[in-house]
Design brief:
The protein is mostly beta strands. It has no helices and seven strands.
Length: 79
């Protein structure tokens, strides 16, 4: 499983990841091991004629996660 983890600081709202994915539902975001809410996913284009439409991107929270909040971004692809 592809995943990255960050520690919130109360001011950062953007958290980057670099694994490929097909659609936003493939990206799982948790905060303190609970399903996170209040964010958008902005993907990096895989390029013209790419097999994978997104090659990484960022999760942008409407409100910055608090100090010491553990943010995890992972990929879950259905078989």
């Amino acid at each position: 499983m592809q995943k990255v983890s960050y520690m919130g600081n109360g001011s950062t709202t953007e958290f980057y990841f670099n694994f490929p994915y097909f659609e936003n539902s493939n990206v799982v975001v948790t905060k303190n091991n609970q399903t996170a809410t209040g964010y958008n996913i902005i993907g990096n284009s895989g390029g013209l004629n790419a097999d994978i439409p997104y090659n990484g991107g960022k999760v942008v929270f409407a409100t910055a996660p608090g100090t010491q909040d553990n943010i995890t971004i992972s990929r879950s692809l259905p078989l």
